Structure formats: C-alpha cells, structure tokens
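Continuing from yesterday's entry. The apo prediction looked reasonable, so today I'm repeating it with fe (ii) ion included to see how the binding region is handled. Same sequence as before; SMILES copied from the compound registry.
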Amino acid sequence: MAYTEPYSVDWDALPNVAMPFMNTVHSDELALVTRLLASLNNAAAPASIDAQISAWVEHTQVHFAREEHLMQEYNFFAAPCHQGEHEQALLQLLGVQQQWLRERDTAALLDYIQHWREWLQQHISTMDFVTAQFLSSFNIQVEL
Ligand SMILES: [Fe+2]
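Holo prediction written out below.
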C-alpha cells in the first residue's frame, strides 16, 4: 500500500503549540520514529524493529490518552473531533504493526512512516494547536 512520497519538509521541524509538555511528547515521539527509520535503513534485526514499533505504539497510546484526558477534564469544545483523529491514527498504526509482524515488509513500513510524519505535522498544526491554545488559559501542570 502506497501512502505518500517521502516527507519533503524538514523532518525535524515540528510545529510548536502553547503547552510545553505537548511539544516535549511530540519531539520524543519523533525521535523514537527517527531511530526506527534509521534501523530500517540499516537493515537492523527484525526483533529490534519489533521492539521499536511496540515502543512507538505504547508512546502513542499514552500520548493520545493524556491529551484526551485533559480535553475531557476541561471540557474542550472540539474534543470529539480531536479524539476521532487519534482513534483513526492509532487504528492505522496498530494495523501497520500487525502487517509488519506478518509480512516483514520494510518498504511498506518505510512508506507508512512517511505518511505518519505528514499526519503528525497536520495534526499538530490543527487539532493540537487549538487544543493547546485552549488548555493554556488554565493553570495546568503536567508531569511526564
Ligand atoms: Fe492530538
């Protein structure tokens, strides 16, 4: 399945949002996927790729759940819309993980990673941007 051309904008340039903890989580996630990308390009052992994908899935679940919890706690008006994007993205990532475990198709995984990187840019600059703007009007301390 072909998603996109390789991500053409600066891979490391994530949009900043008004809640610092969110920026930290986003750059941690990007670092994790950047390592996975390097491992794939260096033909690392499948077990190492498996572990890195699991860590990515886990990081994503915690990342989304944290944002969703805050949206609910503070009654963010666009919570269902934001949460809907999370659900779709997580389902896709879980599907890609299953496909990797079944087929060990490096090209398909590399392709998905490019798609994910575009998704992340789009998601942060829309959903996360507005959510962070909203949350920043409260005095919220988040421990990561
Ligand atoms: Fe989000």
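Comparison notes:
- The chain has a mean pLDDT of 95.
- The radius of gyration is 16 Å.
Will overlay with the apo model tomorrow.
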